[in-house]
Write a structure and sequence with these properties.
The protein is α/β, with parallel strands linked by helices. It is about 40% helix and about 20% strand. The longest helix has 28 residues. Bound molecules: zinc ion. The site of zinc ion has 5 residues, from helix 5.
C-alpha cells in the first residue's frame, strides 16, 4: 500500500519535472527575432521647412464626404497644385497621372525594368470635423499650426504626414542624385475614408490593365505603439500583414403585428431579440493562428521572463492566453471574427407591435473565415425559421490575403524600422481597420500596413477625433524612414 502511494507520487513528480524542464528549455530557446539595428543611412532632413510644408497641406481641407457628389473638387485641385509647387524635383523626375479627377498616381521609373515595382501609398482625403467638437480643438483643425513641438490639425496623422513624408523622402533622394533600381509608384487616393471605390480601386484596375505585377505595397494601417502592448516595455512597430473582412447581416423576424392590448406569447420583437442575444452569447471561436500568432511569436520573445514563459509554451498555455486576450476588446478583435449588433427597428408607435422587426449585425471577419462561413455560422446559431437572415448591402469584403514575413520584403521593412528607430521592436500584426491598400491584393501578395507614427494609448482617440497632431521629431523620423526604406528596397 505505502509503496504504491510512493510510486504514484514519484510518478507525478517525474511528470511535473519533465513538464517544467520542457517549459524552461522552450523559454530559453525562445530568443529574439529582431534584426540587428544597423546604422541609418546618411540622410538630412530640414525639419523646419518640411514641417511648414505639412502644416500648409493641412490648411487645404480635402474632406471626404459620405456622399461622393459632395466632394469639393476645388480643394483637391488646390491640393494637387500645392504638391506640384512644394516638390519640384519629384514633379520633374516622376510621371504624374490624375486618376478619376482627384486621385494621384506617380511613377518613378527604375533602372531595371525587369524588376517588380513597389508601391508607397497614402491617401489625401481627411474625415470632416464634427461641428460640435470644434471648440474642443486646441488649435483650429484646418489652421495648420506648429506649436508645443507638434504639427496640429485634421490629417496630420490620417494621413497627410504619410503622403507628404513620402514626397519629402523622394525629393531628398532626388537631390542626392538617387535613382531607384526598381520602379516606385506613389499612390494617393482621394476617397479612402469612403472605401476607396473612386480612387484606389481605379488605380489598381489601371495598373492591372497595364499588366503590372508588384513586389510589395506599403500603406497606413498600423503604427509604432508606445506603452500599449501589454508585457513589453519597448515601443513596438506593428506591421500589418493582413486586414480583417467586413460584412453586415440583416435579421428580420416576421409575424403578426397589431394592437399591443392583446399580444401573442411571442412577438416579432421578442423573436428578433432572442436571435440577436444568441449571436452575442455565442461568439465566433477564438483562434490563435495566422497574423495574431505571428504577433505573439515576435513580441513574446521580448517580454519579461514569466510572460515569456507563457508565450514560449503555447502547447500548454494557449487556453490561458486566449482567455486573457478576449478580456480586452482590442486584443479580442485580433483573435476572432467579431459580432456587433448595430441597428434595431420595430414599430414607430408605443401601442403598435410591428409585423416585421429588423436588426443589423456587423461582422469583422478574421483571416481563415469567409463571408460565406460567417453567414453559415449565423444561420446555425440563430436556428429559427421565423428569422430571415441575409447579407446587407454591397460592402461585403472577405479578409485580405496574408502577406509574407519570411520574405525579403518584410525584412526590408523590419530593417528600415530598426535603423531609424533602433529601440523599437518590430512585429507582424493584424490590421483591425480597413485601408486603401486592400484594393491592391490582386497585384501582389505582400501588402503591408505600416506608418512610422508613434502613438500612445492616449493618442489613439486623435485619429478621426479632436486635437489630431504629430510630433515634429516624429515627422522628421518618418521622412527618414521612407528614405531608408526606398534605399533598402534597392539592395
Ligand atoms: Zn487613413
Amino acid at each position: 500500500m505505502g509503496k504504491t502511494v510512493i510510486r504514484v507520487f514519484a510518478g507525478i513528480f517525474a511528470v511535473v519535472l519533465i513538464v517544467l524542464t520542457i517549459v524552461l528549455l522552450k523559454t530559453i530557446a525562445f530568443t529574439s527575432k529582431q534584426v540587428k539595428a544597423e546604422p541609418a543611412g546618411d540622410f538630412t532632413v530640414d525639419a523646419q521647412s518640411s514641417a511648414q510644408r505639412l502644416a500648409s497641406a493641412i490648411r487645404i481641407p480635402t474632406i471626404s464626404y459620405e456622399n461622393n457628389a459632395d466632394v469639393k473638387g476645388t480643394e483637391f485641385r488646390i491640393f494637387h497644385l500645392y504638391l506640384d509647387k512644394s516638390f519640384p524635383k519629384l514633379h520633374e523626375a516622376l510621371k504624374k497621372e490624375v486618376i478619376n479627377n482627384y486621385s494621384l498616381l506617380y511613377t518613378w521609373p527604375g533602372r531595371d525594368l525587369k524588376l517588380k515595382p513597389i508601391v508607397l501609398m497614402a491617401h489625401m482625403d481627411v474625415v470632416p470635423v464634427e461641428e460640435k467638437t470644434i471648440n474642443e480643438w486646441k488649435y483650429k483643425p484646418f489652421e495648420g499650426r506648429i506649436a508645443e513641438g507638434y504639427i496640429w490639425g485634421r490629417g496630420t496623422l490620417d494621413n497627410k504626414a504619410n503622403l507628404l513624408g513620402i514626397m519629402e523622402a523622394v525629393e531628398g533622394l532626388l537631390a542626392k542624385g538617387f535613382q531607384p533600381k526598381q520602379t516606385i509608384y506613389i499612390v494617393s487616393g482621394h476617397d479612402e475614408e469612403q472605401g476607396g471605390s473612386q480612387g484606389a480601386v481605379k488605380i489598381a484596375e489601371l495598373l492591372k490593365s497595364r499588366g503590372v505585377v508588384l513586389d510589395y505595397v506599403i500603406d497606413e494601417g498600423m503604427v509604432i505603439t508606445d506603452g500599449i502592448m501589454p508585457g513589453v516595455a519597448a515601443r513596438v512597430g506593428l506591421v500589418g500583414i493582413a486586414e480583417k473582412g467586413f460584412m453586415s447581416v440583416e435579421l428580420r423576424a416576421k409575424g403578426v403585428g397589431g394592437h399591443s392590448s392583446m399580444p401573442p406569447r411571442e412577438t416579432t420583437v421578442g423573436i428578433l431579440c432572442k436571435a440577436v442575444t444568441k449571436l452575442e452569447n455565442n461568439p465566433f471561436p477564438a483562434r490563435l493562428d495566422g497574423p495574431a500568432k505571428h504577433l505573439f511569436d515576435y513580441v513574446g520573445r521580448e517580454m519579461s521572463f514569466p510572460s515569456k514563459m507563457i508565450m514560449a509554451n503555447l502547447w500548454l498555455t494557449e487556453g490561458l492566453l486566449k482567455s486573457q486576450l478576449q478580456k480586452v476588446n482590442t486584443t479580442n478583435a485580433m483573435i476572432r471574427t467579431t459580432t456587433a449588433p448595430t441597428m434595431l427597428e420595430g414599430s414607430t408607435r408605443d401601442n403598435v407591435m410591428p409585423n416585421v422587426a429588423r436588426a443589423v449585425v456587423n461582422f469583422r471577419i478574421l483571416p481563415g473565415d469567409t463571408p460565406e462561413s460567417v453567414l453559415e455560422y449565423v444561420r446555425k446559431t440563430v436556428n429559427d425559421p421565423r428569422v430571415e437572415i441575409k447579407p446587407l448591402g454591397k460592402e461585403i469584403q472577405g479578409p485580405s490575403p496574408v502577406a509574407g514575413i519570411d520574405t525579403k520584403n518584410f525584412q526590408v521593412i523590419q530593417k528600415s524600422i530598426r535603423q531609424i528607430f533602433p529601440d523599437v521592436i518590430v512585429a507582424p500584426s493584424l490590421a483591425i481597420v480597413a485601408s486603401d491598400s486592400r484594393h491592391f491584393a490582386g497585384l501582389t501578395r505582400d501588402v503591408y500596413k505600416f506608418a512610422p507614427m508613434i502613438l500612445k494609448a492616449s493618442d489613439t482617440g486623435r485619429l478621426h477625433g479632436i486635437n489630431e497632431r504629430i510630433a515634429l521629431d516624429n515627422y522628421t523620423q518618418l521622412i527618414k524612414f521612407y528614405m531608408q526604406l526606398i534605399t533598402n528596397s534597392q539592395m
